[in-house]
């Protein structure tokens, strides 16, 4: 463990692919026992940064930079990190020809888990991920959500101190997504440190103590998600779905303190006066507007001028 109780420390990290700066001078630290989320749109640099943390990709030599995971440099001590960390990649890279238990048995050998110890650990993880009744089912017959839970179980085989997840719930239906969130919260309560990438703002709210929002390889803002939204942005937003509808209510918006953003054809009106926003919205048809609390998506739009889920 390095000084200050931080499991991961990154300082001035850069990564280029030709002329493209995928990561540009990023620094952060992840305290022990916390959940830290790298948040941003596709192409923001989240996965590239994650791959450097667990040693799959090398950071640029210049300018000088540093990454430490439990005090280890992932470029020199990749194996030492792998023995204390579990990784859930974006893709469900399971062996389709094997069944659920066999997939876990193969990986258990990498951690010198055999015999009764391996069987007990596999049983416990299948129960935890609610896959015990699927132990003999071949991978090709599992749903997408079941495969994702199995990949998480596989990442926990070595009883890691750090769990790294790259887009853990992308493409899953809401019910499965919430089940995975529940399991991740349970792991955090047990003291596991979690590092994840996501472009789902709700996922960050549900799981993360700290979010690190990125765009085009750079840090936009960092902090506790609830505190960031309270501190950085107006509490309510009226979404108006056409410019024509917005023009009909422009003169009826609350003032002062109203801020207007337009992105992707949607006009968003921000204010602390929720009653005033509602009165303006009620002048429109029910399908023309939506009044809701502000969230991380709105914070990102304010900071960058684009929405969090925009494609890069």
Care to count the β-strands?
Answer: 13
Percent helix among the residues?
25-40%
Note poorly predicted spans. Answer: none
Task: Give the CATH level 1 class of the largest domain.
Answer: Alpha Beta
- CATH architecture descriptor of the largest domain: 3-Layer(aba) Sandwich
Rounded average pLDDT: 93
- Structural Rg: 22 Å
Structural class, please?
alpha/beta
What can you tell me about this protein's structure?
The protein is α/β, with parallel strands linked by helices. The protein has two domains: 3-223, 3-Layer(aba) Sandwich (Rossmann fold); 234-293, Alpha-Beta Plaits. Helix content is 34%, strand content 26%. The chain is built from eleven helices and 13 strands. The chain has helices spanning 46-53, 78-82, 100-110, 115-128, 144-155, 174-189, 201-207, 225-232, 243-249, 274-281, 296-304, and strands at 6-17, 20-31, 35-39, 66-69, 85-88, 162-166, 193-198, 210-215, 218-223, 236-240, 259-263, 266-271, 289-293. The strands form three sheets. The protein has a six-stranded mixed sheet with strand order 5-6-7-3-8-9, sandwiched between helices. A four-stranded antiparallel sheet has the order 11-12-10-13. A hairpin with a 2-residue loop joins strand 11 and strand 12 (266-271). The two termini are 36 Å apart. The model has no long low-confidence stretch (mean pLDDT 93).
């Amino acid at each position: 463990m390095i000084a200050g109780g931080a499991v991961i420390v990154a300082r001035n990290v850069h990564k280029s692919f030709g002329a493209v700066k995928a990561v540009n001078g990023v620094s952060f630290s992840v305290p022990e026992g916390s959940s830290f989320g790298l948040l941003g749109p596709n192409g923001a640099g989240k996965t590239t940064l994650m791959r450097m943390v667990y040693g799959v990709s090398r950071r640029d030599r210049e300018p000088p930079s540093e990454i430490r995971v439990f005090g280890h440099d992932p470029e020199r001590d990749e194996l030492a990190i792998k023995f204390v960390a579990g990784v859930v990649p974006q893709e469900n890279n399971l062996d389709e020809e094997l069944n659920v238990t066999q997939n876990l048995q193969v990986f258990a050998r990498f951690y010198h888990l055999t015999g009764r110890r391996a069987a007990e650990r596999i049983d416990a993880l299948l129960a935890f991920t609610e896959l015990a009744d699927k132990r003999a089912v071949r991978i090709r017959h599992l749903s997408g959500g079941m495969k994702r839970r199995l990949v998480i179980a596989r990442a926990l085989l070595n009883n890691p101190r750090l769990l790294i997840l790259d887009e853990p719930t992308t493409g899953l239906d809401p019910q499965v997504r919430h089940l995975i969130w529940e399991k991740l919260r349970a792991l955090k309560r047990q003291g596991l440190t979690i590092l994840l990438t996501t472009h789902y703002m709700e996922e960050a709210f549900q799981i993360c103590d700290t979010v690190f929002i990125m765009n085009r390889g750079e840090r936009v803002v960092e902090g506790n998600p609830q505190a960031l939204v309270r501190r950085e942005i107006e509490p309510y937003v009226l979404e108006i779905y056409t410019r024509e509808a917005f023009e009909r209510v422009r003169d009826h918006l609350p003032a002062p303190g109203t801020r207007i953003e337009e992105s992707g054809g949607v006009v968003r009106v921000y204010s602390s006066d929720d009653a005033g926003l509602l009165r303006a919205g009620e002048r429109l048809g029910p399908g023309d507007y939506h009044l809701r609390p502000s969230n991380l998506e709105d914070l990102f739009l304010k900071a960058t001028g684009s929405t969090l889920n925009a494609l890069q």
